[in-house]
Automatic annotation (TrEMBL):
One GO term of the biological process aspect: menaquinone biosynthetic process
GO molecular function, one term: demethylmenaquinone methyltransferase activity
Keywords: Menaquinone biosynthesis, Methyltransferase, S-adenosyl-L-methionine, Transferase
PROSITE patterns hit by this protein: SAM_MT_UBIE, UBIE_2
Membrane-spanning parts: none
EC number: 2.1.1.163
Xref: Pfam families: Ubie_methyltran
Gene name, Swiss-Prot/TrEMBL: menG
Binding annotation for S-adenosyl-L-methionine: T63, D81, D103, A104, S120
Organism: Kribbella capetownensis
Protein name, as recorded: Demethylmenaquinone methyltransferase
Catalysed reaction, written as an equation: a 2-demethylmenaquinol + S-adenosyl-L-methionine = a menaquinol + S-adenosyl-L-homocysteine + H(+)
Pathway(s) the chain acts in: Quinol/quinone metabolism; menaquinone biosynthesis; menaquinol from 1,4-dihydroxy-2-naphthoate: step 2/2
Class in the EC hierarchy, top level: transferase
Family note: Belongs to the class I-like SAM-binding methyltransferase superfamily. MenG/UbiE family.
């Protein structure tokens, strides 16, 4: 089975997601006990605040499950992912979406194209976070916004210990039951464990050129939404 490791080589990560594409949304729903679909993503949608006429880049859009909600709100959405397998599944499910294959480290878009760039559960999968954030900054219009949804560090230490134990032990077990490539979820659990907390990520976003960086914890810090603005 294909899985990446914490060196996050792009070809290995893309191949891993190609292998889990068909059942990716289902596995996430089970592993997060419905929180992803019914709470975390709606909260992120609220932060983005899509509206008619807004141009949004949904980066690492996967199968397009997040993009379709943005489009339904009237926004013009471009869904970009470097896993062709995920995009194929997305095209079959949502044939009207604008799906584009692209690397977060070399985005195939002109400068100052989008009003909002958003990325969910994928920033930790790139092998150079700063370069990815700078690319997102480049393609965002002055005054435009960044919205990042990502696993984070629970604010209560005992909860954090229990959460990491769940990620390392329970998530791979769940994946074996419902995923076509359970080995991939061992990497995903490892990447969550290695990911920095809320404040270090905010500093990285700011150091990449973004301003007015803030974050909001969801579910006690299990995940966090970071937001920032491109200088005008």
């Amino acid at each position: 089975m294909t899985r990446a490791d914490l060196t996050k080589q792009p070809q290995a990560v893309a191949a891993m997601f190609d292998n889990v594409a068909e059942g990716y949304d289902r596995t996430n729903a089970v592993a997060t006990m419905g929180l992803e679909k019914h709470y975390w993503r709606p909260q992120t949608l609220g932060e983005i605040a899509p509206r008619k006429g807004m141009k949004i880049l949904d980066l690492a859009a996967g199968t397009g499950a997040s993009s379709i909600r943005l489009r339904e709100a009237g926004a013009e959405v471009v869904s970009c992912d470097f896993s062709v397998g995920m995009l194929r599944v997305g095209k079959r499910r949502y044939p009207d979406l604008d799906l584009i294959a692209g690397d977060a480290l070399r985005l195939p878009f002109a400068d100052a194209t989008f009003d909002v760039v958003t990325i969910s559960w994928a920033l930790r999968n790139v092998n150079d976070v700063t370069v990815a954030l700078q690319e997102m900054l480049r393609v965002t219009r002055p005054g435009g916004r960044l919205v990042v949804l990502e696993n984070s560090h629970p604010t209560w230490k005992p909860f954090r210990v229990a959460y990491l134990e769940y990620m390392m032990r329970a998530v791979p077990v769940v994946a074996k039951a419902v995923s076509t490539n359970p080995d991939a979820y061992e990497y995903l659990a490892e990447s969550v464990r290695a990911w920095p907390g809320q404040e270090p990520l905010a500093r990285t976003i700011e150091a990449s050129g973004w301003t007015r960086v803030q974050w909001r914890n969801l579910t006690g810090g299990l995940v966090a939404i970071h937001r920032a603005v491109k200088p005008a």
